[in-house]
UniProtKB/TrEMBL annotation:
Oxalate binds at H103, E108. It comes from Penstemon smallii. The keyword Metal-binding applies. SUPFAM superfamilies: RmlC-like cupins. The keyword tRNA processing does not apply. The lineage of its organism: Eukaryota, Viridiplantae, Streptophyta, Embryophyta, Tracheophyta. Belongs to the germin family. GO terms for cellular component: apoplast. This is Germin-like protein. Keywords: Apoplast, Disulfide bond, Manganese, Metal-binding, Secreted, Signal. One of its GO terms (molecular function) is manganese ion binding. InterPro entries: Cupin_1 (IPR006045), Germin (IPR001929), Germin_Mn-BS (IPR019780), RmlC-like_jellyroll (IPR014710), RmlC_Cupin_sf (IPR011051). Mn(2+) binds at H101, H103, E108, H147.
Amino acid sequence: MLKLVFLSFLLLILTCNASVQDFCVADLMGPESPSGYTCKSPANVTATDFVFTGFRKAGNTTNIINAAVSPAFDAQFPGLNGLGVSIARLDLAPGGVIPMHTHPGASEVLLVVQGSIVTGFISSANQVYVKKLLKGDVMIFPQGLLHFQINGGGRTAVAFASFGSPNPGLQITDFALFGNKLSSALVEKTTFLDDAQVKKLKSVLGGSG
């Protein structure tokens, strides 16, 4: 009797394991929700879905911030959909900066692989944590907190940022304030900047109003 119970229990475990879904490769043609993309049919999944080659070349740093962020989130890397991880490459030319920003959906771990980067974050108590990172150094940025990266030397810096979400989200403070249609009067009231400063920043960052 005991042997029969054991065999039945073992069969139940094997049946349950057989039904476990190992992955959910994103169907980029389907809808996206806060929990991610719907799953591509397993019959259409290939090894290519689990490989990302977008980091082979440096990002284009010829822009207003002299920096580039190349993401490998679920929209670019379907195989990590639903797995709770993602990664991005940061290229910062001399003088380059990733402006103050937040990732509302995940914490971030930054690894410097070339050059040096001055980086830090601000806690919800307005405590500032800033450090200059050299090649091989790693820093953590807690979820949702404002943080930044600045090239710390005279050569191009490269780093990789990993996240605890397939889509960590991104909001850049400067663009949130000056890159939209929020009226200048409201921006001035909430930032204590004068009209000339607000209009100048809006003209640079593409805002209006």
